[in-house]
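Worked example

This section walks through a single chain of length 427. The input is the sequence exactly as stored; nothing has been trimmed or padded.
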Amino acid sequence: MRTADSNGWWERLRAEERLVLQLLRDVGAGSVESGLDWDYVYTIAESHKLVSLVWYLLQRRYPALALPAPAREKFLARVALEELGDRAQTSLVRQLVQIESSLPGPVVFLKGSVLKWRVYPESTLRRSADVDVLVATAEVEPLRAALEALQFNMESPLWPTLEQQRRVFYELPPMRGSNGQKVDVHWNFTCPGSPYHRDPALYLQSVQTVEAAGARLHTLDSEYFLLHMAVHIYTSAKLSFTLRDLYDFHLVSGHGVVRPFDEERFLGIVHEMHLTDPAYFCCELTGNALDSPRMRAIATRLRSEAGPVARKHAQRAVANLHLLMRPYNHYMVMLEDVLAEGRPVAVLKALFGIRRGEYERLYFEPVSSSPAALLVYPKHVVRLLQFYHLGFGLHFERLVGARIWTDAKAALGARGGALRSGSRQRT
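Given that input, the structure is written out below as tokens.
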């Protein structure tokens, strides 16, 4: 695969988008370009869950920079809010550590609840709205009961029993506390029907103990930690990942979580678990978006072993990385406008034009036929439409099928054309 710049996506970025990427890459000019739209810089940072980090990097790189008052107030207000969230999450992590002492097995902390304390300069710089944990299957029910004793309630269960949930899914519905805190309890990282479903014992064998949030936490060893993130991004979050996720990859590969990251060990684990596709996809995107030498090197070594679909999706995503920078909210605004014009039936028909099997193949998650799941399904299909266009641009039609695109364009009328031409209009 060609380098990022030779794909031409860098040249199609707006100045504000280049600034954000240069901050994350830790490169850039000695001064900021004049005439920047700082409201748009904030919007990019907010869309990618990077407000505190972007503000921190701006202050460190350009200490004399004076933002317009409205933009500065937006940044500071969001930073203050995320500091409150960080304190709330610290408290929640400590509660879970206390619960763990009553369980036979470990509660393994994942993703942001570990990263913010282990690889970011300050914990407040990594926004994390919930706490994800992995436990052995036998520990799921005791952990759920312990959370309910602390006034956490399960949100919208889609299956009547835990056994049914385990047969078709990989986590409980979110457990939400009375103060809005949320815990996601996993027993695996993918659904049993996913081609990337693996025995969770393969991950649990790597569990280590680290200092984080003022406590001793169990988490996955550095290489398994990176791999679990890759599987998550390539499957259940493939349609909704952000620059924050790629930045997580960049930091973990550079620093490690438990100990320094070992590239050779990581490649050995990828081969042993036959998870080349998700590892390659995420390393290729991170290497190009953040100009990460280590991620580029790993992607180069995995490329010939990855399947044709993973290579094709990575190539298209890299060629359209400039679209990843665009805040996706304008797609939702477009759909809301159409609904406001009194054509909800046409819109719903277009959304349900994606067949259940097509959705499951792309998203690797089952779609239950229960009434509760039908309320969730349209939301996920909207995400599918958003992110497959956002990520793959003009290849969108081929990815989801010409029939679906035709139906959607007919339902959305002239506005449907904006989806096709959005990448050209926003360069």
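What to look for: The chain is about 60% helix and 5% strand.
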